[in-house]
Amino acid sequence: MRTLIACVLSLYIIAGQALGQESRGSIVGRVLDSSGAVIPGATVTATNQNTNVAVNAQTNDQGNYQILFLIPGVYKVTAALPGFKTFVKENIELRVNDRIGLDMRLEVGDVTENVVVSAEAPLLQTATADVGLVVDNRRISELPLAHGNASSLIMLTPGVNMSYPAGMKWQDPMRVAQTTMMSVQGAPFGSTEFTMDGVPNTQSSNADRGQGISNQPPADAIQEFKVETSFDASVGHTSGTLINTVIKSGTNDLHGTAYYFLRDPALNANGFFSNAAGQPKGDFTYKRWGGSLGGPVYLPKLYNGKDR
What is the bridge-based pairing of β-strands 193-196 and 199-200? Predict the structure, then answer.
């Protein structure tokens, strides 16, 4: 009996570890010479162009490399080996849980010479079979948001059905009820899994609504999020879809936002049907303000967050 209980507890612990989903990305590929032969021992470096944080990897005897656990952002990738020109590719956009394949060819020459590759088509996601839509920061910052809630942009994904979409416009970032009333690709309502930076962010609501998002951060704090409608077995905690949100990280420079939204009867016209019925304007006032600030952490004589 004790053995059975121990086995059950072990399975529970192992299953619990699968609840956190990876939000970081990776870049993988091969390094070849101009004839197509593999190059072992080449140094491949991925550098975040906003923070200057660099991650290195070495190609193996098959010329393969992989750089894992990269924070979503824009990267510069270089490949170098004595006797060859340095290969440089800039502006590689790595998004939530991306696994980008990038093969590079080195030309014979001095290592101080660079071969810069630019003006190419965007890299295709060929390393995994995941299907989904990334709602990037440009959409979050430029598209109108219902009540400032970025969750309303989930409806940009094909196959998403909200049972009460009108209710989203009065859902501020701290209210989460309407996110439970969502069905994706015909899955039951309330079967969506939410994560934030790969950490589970799903709460159980009442029995007729299922589960919804636990904490919806303000739109200014979100870098991007991905709605995955088809995924591999690493998710396995939901029959519906996975929505993985990535929070903004600081860069080497200070960035900030400030906003104020006002809706007041003095600024609004009366509705057409209210005018036709001889009814006055409704007395409705709505205010929303906020802001954000990001940059390197600096503690004199203790810590300098630049290039980290």
Answer: antiparallel
